[in-house]
Design goal:
With 340 residues, the chain is α+β, with helices and mostly antiparallel strands. The chain has one domain. The protein is built from 12 helices and 16 strands. Helix 1 packs across helix 2.
Length: 340
């Protein structure tokens, strides 16, 4: 079974994902990984990833873009959302790095207790406390490796907490937005590979999200004007054909972008960073007992009607829900004790 399905949140419909370069990725993560490990390592390195990105987005997709808006519609790009004139999106890179009028087409919930999605993505949620068949975090990431084994302060802060994995597919809007309001207390980069975020690759390779190059931003929300959900870690993970993660926080629109630095206050729902073209992943970590995930995300995760590759590979129902950036994904647990 090669289908990968997910639940469309707005309608509750089951959708089948059209996965880019699926056959190539499955071959790379099976035959090449097992029989040619040196080649596999080279292909998931920085230089090969950049070359594949150029061939895929500047050459192959670039040629198709010359066919016009019909191809963009097939990708699922809604040109009506774009901030820039549609005719200016004349290269694949411009399409995948497009800006949207998010203040109109991705409204922010008014309730400040709500944690919002950092991206247009397909999300799975869970807890580091889950056991038995649902002990999923060891499939997606190694907790200590994800944050950096030498970051003992954050390993202690998020131990036993909750997580959400947001998988961006290539056609998505590729800006990340801040999921909470608060003060940045740490911001650092961890080196790593450029593994694909294709579900087949995730199943084949143990803990891929903690092996890729990634940027970690820790936000303290227990400050004046903050969301009041404790410390929150946003981990932005590169993937195959992702060239860079550009930190470009803008409090209003996309105006006056600036790098993310410790000490700065960030508002909820603002653009924070931009992935270069391709597929990529965000991981959110929450401290124990500070948030409760939305019921539909928990319910959809175990929907046995959906043919998810994750369900197949992990031997348990495990279904993603498609969410929009700045939409609700969790809510503050009022009265929860403030962790240190």
């Amino acid at each position: 079974m090669y289908r990968h399905q997910y639940v469309e949140r707005e309608t509750g419909s089951i959708r089948t994902e059209a996965i880019f370069a699926d056959r190539i990725v499955r071959t790379l993560y099976s035959a090449a990984r097992e029989n040619a490990p040196v080649l596999f390592r080279a292909l998931t390195g920085r230089h090969a990833s950049a070359l594949l990105g150029y061939l895929n987005y500047d050459v192959a997709l670039g040629a198709r873009l010359s066919g016009g808006r019909a191809f963009l519609r097939r990708l699922g790009v809604d040109l009506r959302e774009c901030l820039d004139p549609p005719e200016s999106l004349d290269t694949a890179r411009k399409v995948f790095e497009r800006r949207i009028r998010y203040w109109e087409c991705r409204p922010l919930p008014a309730d400040p207790r709500i944690v919002v999605s950092p991206a247009d993505a397909r999300v799975l949620v869970g807890s580091l406390r889950e056991a038995s068949a649902l002990f999923l975090k060891d499939k997606f990431f190694d907790f200590e490796e994800l944050l950096g084994r030498d970051r003992r302060r954050w390993l202690a802060a998020f131990a036993g907490g909750d997580w959400a994995v947001f998988r961006l597919t290539p056609e998505k809007y590729h800006y990340n937005h801040t999921p909470v309001a608060g003060r940045v207390v740490d911001h650092y980069e961890l080196p790593g590979r450029y593994h694909s975020c294709n579900p087949a690759a995730v199943i084949a390779l143990a803990t891929p999200y903690s092996k890729n190059r990634r940027v970690v931003t820790v936000i303290d929300t227990d400050v004046p004007g903050g969301s009041g959900v404790g410390r929150v870690a946003l981990i932005e993970v590169v993937a195959l054909m992702i060239g860079d993660i550009v930190q470009c926080y803008s409090e209003v629109g996309y105006e006056r972008p600036r790098p993310v630095e410790p000490g700065m206050f960030v508002v909820r729902g603002a653009p924070k960073s931009l992935y270069r073209p391709g597929s990529s992943t965000d991981v959110l970590l929450f401290q124990r007992g500070r948030v409760r995930f939305d019921e539909d995300l928990l319910r959809n995760r175990a929907d046995g009607r959906v043919a998810s590759r994750f369900s197949l590979g992990f031997r348990t129902p495990l279904v993603e829900t498609e969410v929009r950036v700045r939409a609700s994904v969790a809510r503050r647990i009022d009265g929860a004790p403030i962790a240190g």
